[in-house]
Amino acid sequence: MELIKKLCDTYGPASREDNIRKIIKSNIQKYCKKIKVDRLGNLIAYVPAKSAGSTKGAGSAKSTGSTTGAGSAKSAGSTTGAGSAKSAGSTKGAGSAKSAGSTKGCNGDTIMFCAHMDEIGLIVTHIDKNGFLRFTNVGGIFPERILFERVIFENGTIGVIGVETKRETPKPAHLDNMFIDIGAKNKEEAQTMVRIGDIVAFYQQAVNINKRLSAKALDDRIGCYCLIETMKKIKANKDDLYFVFSVQEEVGLRGARVGAYAIAPKYAIAVDVTITGDIPESPKMDVSIGKGVAIKVKDSAFIGNPLINDKLVSYARKMKIPYQLEILERGTTDAAIIQIVKEGALSGVLSIPTRYVHSTNEVCDFRDVEATIKLLTCICEKGLG
Ligand SMILES: [Zn+2]
Fold first, then answer.
1. Lowest CB count within 10 Å: 17, 63, 96, 244, which one?
2. What is the pLDDT of residues 296-318, one digit of tens each?
3. How confident is the model at residue 128 (pLDDT cuts 50, 70, 90)?
């Protein structure tokens, strides 16, 4: 719980993921063989294939290299991206980790897992003579969900979101009619506190509500948390695994694109939140919080590969992991881009059902988080082939 709180409460809007990256890096370092940050800021952790013999974690893999060495698996492996990218040794990015690894699993495939580090935010566009800040969105902001909320700047300055009280102000208010009040008495004072182009995150603390969690940025720190916990649990993996903590998902899946290009995985699984159909008057959607991990069938830019989804469902059934099937009519996630980079990746998405997505108080259920980690661990150990 401590780690989830830290991940959610910390400042990290799109393009400002540094603090999140630091937290994740310190938590996964001993569970992977290589770790790197690419030019865009994606954190990419490499866990080579390893046999059950090697005791827990990639920690051991670190010193010994891969113990499994089904070297031939490489040639037997996919005809697609992974192999060629490896030899081609794309100069930067995770590519280099690969060539250094020369660790082929029993399956010999490459699986990329991806969860995004960034959260939605606001960016300052104008400071008026009375010291109020006008702003626009960084990512998908619903104006009615942010009114009178607190925000925090990277330098620690705190503000409150206010709204014009003119009669003609539309309802719900547009961002154009809203402003941030940082307690400055005029423009000059405000300029000593913040600058045009500064990006704010919402200022909120994670709390338990009964057996559930309410926090800002569950989208997608809860996905990051699932990947971190999965890395700790893997005992043996037949494939080479890449855990990508991506940047700038909220502004157009940007980090995932270069991450996937460098890795060129045969398989990819994104982990993110999805909305639910379980609150009053919500859209008809067969996903509820507390009923298990959601396996995505379709969203607005992605259709889950049927073979991958069959595999995910069969693992869930076999392991008695509660699951639901998700069709999200609006919105998408990193898998939408990962699946179409280079020669493509066979892709799926695991979603953590979440209420009030893109608000300052998103809500999810710990049991769904546990189910997600269990299914992810199963994928890591058994593969997707
Ligand atoms: Zn997300």
1. 63
2. 999 999 999 999 999 999 999 99
3. very high
pTM for this model (two decimals): 0.86
* Dihedral angle over CA of 337, 339, 343, 346, nearest 10: 170
172 and 288, same structural domain? no
Q: Are residues 88 and 126 in the same domain?
A: no
- The span from the CA of 295 to the CA of 309, in Å, is 7
* In-domain check, residue 208: no
Domain-embedded: residue 50 = yes
Other CB atoms within a 10 A radius of the CB of residue 172 amount to 12
Give the mean pLDDT of 330-348.
Answer: 96
Asked about 249 being catalytic, the answer comes back as yes
Question: Which residue among 17, 229, 249, 326 is the active-site one?
Answer: 249
CA of 116 to the centre of ligand 1 (A): 7
On whether both 141 and 85 belong to a single domain, the answer is no
| Domain enclosing residue 8, as ranges | 2-118+216-382
| pLDDT tens for each residue of 91-111 | 344 444 443 344 444 678 999
Verify that 104 and 127 share a domain, yes or no: no
Q: What's the gap in Å between 18 CA and the centre of ligand 1?
A: 17
Dist. CA 108 → ligand 1 center (Å): 30
Q: What is the pLDDT of residue 323?
A: 98
Residue 17 C-alpha to ligand 1 middle, in angstroms? 14
> Which is higher by pLDDT, 135 or 98?
135
Is residue 292 scored above 80 in pLDDT?
A: yes
The helix or strand, by DSSP H or E, that contains position 139, with its residue range, turns out to be: none
pLDDT in tens, 368-382: 999 999 999 999 999
Residues 271 and 342 in one domain: yes
Q: How far is the CA of 92 from the centre of ligand 1 (A)?
A: 26
Q: Please classify residue 160 by burial: count the beta carbons closer than 10 Å to its beta carbon, then call 0-12 exposed, 13-18 middle and 19+ buried.
A: middle
The total number of structural domains in the chain stands at 2
